[in-house]
Amino acid sequence: MFPIHKIVFWESSQDKGSSEINFKSEVLSISSSDGVLMAAFENRVSGFKLKDLSKFVQLKTCDNPLGLHTLQVIKGRISLATPHI
């Protein structure tokens, strides 16, 4: 239904997308917690603040064709586990 190169935020009450983030490469997986969204790609992970969708981090990873990662946010501190170079 949606291209593999974007994340769409869906507004169910309006039955349509409310905002989106576009990328040049395929989004393999996403996770969110406490106002933070992480998007995993084959060789990187990018982090966004949900309140304004601004990117606050981009980390290089080793080849990660499944987009493996995990995210935890506790008291404003972000923990991310992902394959690394």
Set out the fold topology.
Blueprint: E1 6-11, E2 16-22, E3 29-33, E4 36-40, E5 44-49, E6 54-60, E7 70-74, E8 77-81
Antiparallel strand pairs: 1-2, 3-4, 4-5, 5-6, 7-8
Name its key features.
four-stranded antiparallel β-sheet; globular; mainly beta; 85 residues
Shape: globular
Rg from alpha-carbon coordinates: 13 Å
Order of helices and strands: EEEEEEEE
Q: What oligomeric state is this?
A: single chain
Number of strands: 8
Helix content: under 10%
Number of domains: 1
Number of helical segments with 4 or more residues: 0
Main sheet strand line-up: 3-4-5-6
Structural class: mainly beta
Largest sheet features = 4 strands, antiparallel
**How much strand?**
over 45%
Mean pLDDT: 91
Runs with pLDDT <50, length 5+? none
Q: Short summary of the structure?
A:
The chain is mostly beta strands and 85 residues long.
Give a structural overview.
With 85 residues, the protein is an all-beta fold. It has one domain (6-81). It has no helices and eight strands. The protein has a four-stranded antiparallel β-sheet, with no helix packed on it. It is globular and about 40 Å long. It starts with 5 loop residues before the first strand and ends with a strand.
